[in-house]
């Protein structure tokens, strides 16, 4: 049966809340409103207000409280409406959650899961549309996940909760309505990138909301006789270099698709790693398709022009193959 | 296009006209959203008209205004042409932000209208900074900052009001308390629901006023502004109001009691004020219809303008990222 990405997340939350009494969900409007992206709809009725906990508009306060609750033996899942608003909570995430284990000489771990929406494509303008995953991927001490498929949406939370360290999970707002078959083996690991489409001529490296675009580009390229491999990073920190290197050693070419801005992006980091790890295997300079260096605009035609699109990915591939 | 009502009219009629202009604009926005002409998030002000109308007529043209994402009314009454507002919502080049901002990010430098901020609480420290700049430069200006009661839970509120009080800055904190922050009722988010007491704890003068009564809003704001202008430091006003529509167009509004909404609608700011004026013999039905027709005509003109306006060329996508045209 097909289910939505949103439903997969809800199933994962429901399972976590049912199986572990230490788990609770908190965030702005997760309860009575049903979640700003309707992910937690119905959970308040099932689990009650102690465990589906509406918070005031106090990102620093409630994310910080999540860190404390994790230290105190709970398994909090904190939802922040979007990555834009999470900047108000950077301090507890970066300065406390991520650093505590190291600073305490291994005495304290912070088993916290922070979930948030990210990304553009809904004409919500700059303050609701940015892709700042790479900011989090910069921070040692946290694991950063980006489920791009229904199966990963279902599977990643289990692993995130089992992780003794803080996990930040990014859900691209454009994916919530994505529907797909939930495979029986939806369990996933949160240490490896996934090969979503095997191919021989070049590697498309992507994640999150850009993955469907990369997949579509690959299938359009296939109809022109170009065989692209598509890799879904899934784990943005720590990055799984081995899967990337293995793929590029096979295909000898890589195009990175990342909705973040080019400058100081994840795409930049991946390029650097490919240079370090397989420079002599490359038949062409690594290319990337990122967002234009502009705060994401409201008007649809401008927003579309600012974001990575299938046509831009195909053009980058053609440019690389000289076809 | 129809001109906004002239200041030659009695204040009561100006206030009514202002509220009608807001209401007609917002109703049209809802319709245009349904038709797919306006996209993104759209937060309507229907029900809260008395707040912006009463407050903005109490402020001077040189004052600074800071608002949230529910700011169409503040922009309009500040004098941002409705054509420019509507074109912005259409995402056109003629919009007040050239299609970059949309509904939530209206700005107008010439009118000292500083947004248009979609980060809840984000405008509060900004207002403090504007007031500080004025004070440092010896400019006798008031900065009025509009925000919802939900924003009072953010650290930004506490830090901003503390600074404003500490430095005796000319900030007018205008809290539009519509009782809900998205789906969260005030009592579910604040340990102290007496908002004036919270403000007062920072030693800031704080007054609650009926936000459904445009004259009360106007009078309270006028007095507060006078004090702030005279150098008394910041002032906190709570307008007790209600939004008749959902939080945004994406909100199914399942968290509010229908009876509660109906009760507040009974106190609707436009029809209650209209009735008052008629009873006092200050307004005839014909005069009311004329004001309403003028508001409708202004809206129709703006829509026609926005429809016909050009789109920003994609070649200009990277414009205005930096002041000079360099990009990285
Ligand atoms: C920092 C931040 N957190 C969360 C949001 C999402 N959000 C947008 S409006 C809103 C409700 C704000 O309520 P209130 O301040 O009372 O203003 P109102 O909408 O009632 O006018 C929320 C939670 C946001 N925009 N910014």
Automatic annotation (TrEMBL), chain A:
Alphabetical list of InterPro entries matching this protein: THDP-binding, Transketo_C/PFOR_II, Transketolase-like_Pyr-bd, Transketolase_C
Domain of life the protein comes from: Bacteria
Family matches, as SMART domains: Transket_pyr
Keyword Transferase listed: no
Organism: Rhodoferax sediminis
Protein name: Alpha-ketoacid dehydrogenase subunit beta
Cofactor: thiamine diphosphate
Cross-referenced NCBIfam families: PRK09212.1
Pfam families named in the record: Transket_pyr, Transketolase_C
Keyword rRNA processing: no
Keywords tagged on the record: Oxidoreductase, Thiamine pyrophosphate
Chain ranges of the Transketolase-like pyrimidine-binding domain: 3-178
Record lineage: Bacteria, Pseudomonadati, Pseudomonadota, Betaproteobacteria, Burkholderiales
Gene Ontology MF: a single term: oxidoreductase activity
Automatic annotation (TrEMBL), chain B:
Domain Dehydrogenase E1 component: residue ranges: 18-312
InterPro entries according to UniProt: DH_E1 (IPR001017), PDH_E1_Alpha_Subunit (IPR050642), Pyrv_DH_E1_asu_subgrp-y (IPR017597), THDP-binding (IPR029061)
The protein's required cofactors: thiamine diphosphate
EC category: oxidoreductase
Top-level taxon: Bacteria
Pfam family, one: E1_dh
Spans through the membrane: none
GO biological process, one term: pyruvate decarboxylation to acetyl-CoA
Keyword match Oxidoreductase: yes
Keywords of the record: Oxidoreductase, Pyruvate, Thiamine pyrophosphate
Enzyme Commission number(s): 1.2.4.1
GO molecular function, one term: pyruvate dehydrogenase (acetyl-transferring) activity
Catalytic activity: N(6)-[(R)-lipoyl]-L-lysyl-[protein] + pyruvate + H(+) = N(6)-[(R)-S(8)-acetyldihydrolipoyl]-L-lysyl-[protein] + CO2
Subunit structure: Heterodimer of an alpha and a beta chain.
Role description: The pyruvate dehydrogenase complex catalyzes the overall conversion of pyruvate to acetyl-CoA and CO(2).
Identification of the protein by name: Pyruvate dehydrogenase E1 component subunit alpha
Primary gene name: pdhA
């Amino acid at each position: 049966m097909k289910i939505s990405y949103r439903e997969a997340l809800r199933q994962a939350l429901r399972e976590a809340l049912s199986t572990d009494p230490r788990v609770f969900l908190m965030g702005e409007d997760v309860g009575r409103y049903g979640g700003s992206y309707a992910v937690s709809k119905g959970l308040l009725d099932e689990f009650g207000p102690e465990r589906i906990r509406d918070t005031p508009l106090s990102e620093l306060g409630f994310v910080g409280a999540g860190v404390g609750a994790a230290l105190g033996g709970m398994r909090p899942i904190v939802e922040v409406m979007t990555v834009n608003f999470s900047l108000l909570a950077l301090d507890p995430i970066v300065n406390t959650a991520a650093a505590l284990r190291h600073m305490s000489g291994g005495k304290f771990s912070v088993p916290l899961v922070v979930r948030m929406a990210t990304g553009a494509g809904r004409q919500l303008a700059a303050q609701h549309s940015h892709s700042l995953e790479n900011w989090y991927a910069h921070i040692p001490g946290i694991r950063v996940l980006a489920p791009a498929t229904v199966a990963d949406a279902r599977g990643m939370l289990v692993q995130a909760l089992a992780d003794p360290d803080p996990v930040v999970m990014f859900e691209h707002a454009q994916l919530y309505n994505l529907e797909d078959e939930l495979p029986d083996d939806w369990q996933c690991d949160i240490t490896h990138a996934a090969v979503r489409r095997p191919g021989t001529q070049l590697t498309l490296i992507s994640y999150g909301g850009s993955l469907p675009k990369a997949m579509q580009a690959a299938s359009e390229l296939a109809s022109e006789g170009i065989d692209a491999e598509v890799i879904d990073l899934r784990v943005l920190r720590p990055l799984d270099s081995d899967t990337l290197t293995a793929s590029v050693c096979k295909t000898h070419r890589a195009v990175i698709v990342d909705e973040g801005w080019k400058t100081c992006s994840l795409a930049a980091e991946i390029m650097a790693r490919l240079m370090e790890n397989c420079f002599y295997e490359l038949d062409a300079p690594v290319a990337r398709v990122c967002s234009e260096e502009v705060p994401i605009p409201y008007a649809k035609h401008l927003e579309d022009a600012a974001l990575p699109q299938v046509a831009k990915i195909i053009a980058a591939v053609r440019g690389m193959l000289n076809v | 296009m129809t001109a906004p009502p002239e200041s030659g009219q009695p204040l009561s009629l100006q206030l009514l006209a202002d509220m009608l202009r807001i209401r007609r604009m917002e109703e049209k926005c809802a319709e245009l959203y349904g038709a797919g002409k306006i996209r993104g998030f759209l937060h309507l002000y229907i029900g809260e008209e008395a707040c912006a109308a009463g407050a903005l007529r109490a402020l001077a043209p040189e004052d600074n205004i800071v608002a949230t994402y529910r700011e169409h009314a503040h922009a309009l009454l500040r004098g941002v042409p409705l054509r420019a507002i509507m074109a912005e919502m259409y995402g056109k080049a003629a919009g007040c932000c050239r299609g970059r901002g949309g509904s939530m990010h209206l700005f107008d430098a010439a009118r000292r209208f500083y947004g248009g901020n979609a980060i809840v609480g984000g405008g509060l420290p900004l207002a403090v900074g504007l007031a500080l700049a004025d004070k440092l430069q010896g400019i006798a200006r008031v900065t009025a900052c509009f925000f919802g009661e939900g924003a009072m839970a953010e650290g930004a509120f506490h830090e901003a009001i503390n600074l404003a009080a500490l430095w005796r800055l000319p900030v007018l904190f205008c809290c539009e308390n519509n009782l809900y922050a998205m789906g969260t009722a005030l009592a579910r988010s604040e340990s102290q629901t007496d908002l004036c007491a919270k403000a007062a704890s920072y030693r800031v003068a704080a007054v609650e006023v009926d936000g459904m009564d445009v004259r009360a809003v106007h009078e309270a704001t006028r007095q507060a502004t006078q004090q702030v202008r005279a150098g008394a430091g910041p002032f906190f006003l709570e307008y007790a109001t209600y939004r008749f529509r959902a939080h945004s167009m994406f909100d199914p509004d399942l968290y509010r009691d229908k009876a509660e909404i109906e009760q507040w609608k009974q106190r609707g700011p436009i029809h209650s004020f209209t009735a008052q004026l008629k009873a006092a013999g200050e307004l005839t039905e014909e005069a009311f219809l004329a004001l309403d027709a003028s508001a409708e005509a202004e809206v129709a003109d703006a829509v026609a303008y926005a429809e016909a306006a050009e789109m920003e060329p994609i070649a200009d996508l990277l414009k205005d990222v930096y002041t000079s045209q360099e990009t990285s």
